[in-house]
Every structure is written in C-alpha cells, then in structure tokens.
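Cross-check.
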Amino acid sequence: MRFFFIGIIFLCVQGFSQQLPAVCSGTLTRLENFHSAYSGNRTIDIWLPDNYDIGKKYDVLYMHDGQMLFDSSVTWNKQAWDVDDIITRLSKNNTLRDLMVVGIWNSDKSRHADYFPQKPFESLTKHQKELIYSAARANGYSVFNDYAIQSDNYLKFLVREVKPLIDSLYSTNRGPDNTFIAGSSMGGLISLYAICEYPEVFGGAACLSTHWPGIFTMENNPVPEAFVQYLQHHLPNPKTHKIYFDHGDQTLDAMYPPLQKRVDKVMKRKGFTKQNWKTLSFPGEDHSEKAWKKRFEIPLIFLLGR
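Predicted model, tokenized:
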C-alpha cells in the first residue's frame, strides 16, 4: 500500500501544471488534483526539512491557503509566508521540534464556504442565514459565490483523507500532541473550528488575523455572537491543547480588536491561561502575508518549541 501511494505522488508531481515554489531548504512535493470524496479535487504541497530521516519521527503542521506559504514569486499578490525559511532558521538554533508542513491549497471561489465554521452558522435563524449568504465584498462581488457553507466536509477531507495519507507516507508522530493546524483570516477561523471539532486529532491551532466578522461588515452581523456562543460549548480541554490568536489594526485587521476581546473573555472562563493560550496585538500591521510572515515564528515557537 505504501508503494501504491508513492506511485500516486509520482504521477501527480509529474503532471503538475503550476510552477512549484522555490524553497530555501528542504524539499517540496506536490499532490495536484488530489481527489476528495468530501471536498472536490485539491492541490497539496508537502514540505520536508533538510536531512529528513525516516528513522526519526516528525510533528506535522497542516496549513490552509497552501499556495501562499513558500514562494512569493508564484503567488497572485507576490507575497508569501516563507514558512520554509522561518522553520529552517529556528531549527538551526534547535528552537523547534522536528516537523514537516502540509499546505492545503484553497479552492479559490469556494474558499469562504470551505473555511466558514458550519455549526455556528447553522445556529442562526433562517433570516440571519439569508442575510449572510447575500453579503457582498467592498467591490460588490458575492462573498460566497453561490456556494453553500461546507466546512464540516472540508474538515472531513483533512481528517479522514489527508492526514491518513500523510501518516502512511511519512515518518510522523501521529497523536494530537504532535499534530497542529494553522491559518490566517478565514484560515484562522477554520483552524480554530478544526481544533474544536477534532480535539482528538489536533493538539494546537495558530489563528492569525482571525476573521471574526465572517463577512465584510459589522452592520446587523450576527456572526461574531454565534462564534462566541459556539466557543463557550466547544473549546477543547485547555490542559491538553494550545491556541494562539493575533491581529493587527490596519486594513481588514482594524475590525478585529474588539471582537478578539470578546473571545478572550471566553478563553479565560474556559480555563485557558498563558501556558496554553496567547492573544497578541501588532499595532501598525495590516491584513497580508507580509505581516503574517513577520510574526509567524511566535506561534511556531509557542506550539512547537522544544
């Protein structure tokens, strides 16, 4: 079975149509058009550190918006997190545990529907749901592009299809203490939703510039309250899980500080302390890969530090 999966990877890599990101170190393998029974075809980039050794075990960091993680020369806005650079630099100082990164590409038009936490949405009234689905961006384009919210299926894709494949192909530590999830904006929301829905799978989540409004206005917006109510009943055990939040205060991030304060109150009530939870503010920073790159080492060390 292991050789069968390796054959699939070989065929996918040979057939890729997008340019592979250049990485500063380690190796990157691409699974293009990986078929999911839950979430349609997806592209997945897998980064292994220098001197990857099958005789060792590696923690796994799953990240959303995978096309934005490694190389700014191949992204739409010429920005990237440069995840490989940051992990390599920290690893040389023996700051991090041994880890690999699995970057799951977003599917562009259905991204918002994939990443919007489904159970909080389903708690809304019919009228509130209709308002959310009819929401538009500042440019007038639809937020959801006529896709129904489907984040529960997106998480099934991660947990039931991607993780078993990664664990079968690579030398991984497989328990929640060694499995982490991270993302920004809507990717921050789905990372938090993942650790709440699957606490037996994910032991830590990094949620940068978490998009608490869900849409792009606060006027008559029931979404933040729905998220707060959901977290009061679904946060994982603080004794066994770590959660990181942050935000700037420019561009889209300007919406987040008061909403994050409401979430922070819930975190405290549910028993989270500085040992297992951080919320950081970065004045002057905006909503961009450039900003997230500058501070990504902080959640990395918090979740995966030695």
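The first helix runs from residue 2 to 14. Confidence is low (pLDDT under 50) at residues 1-16. Passed to J.P. for a second look.
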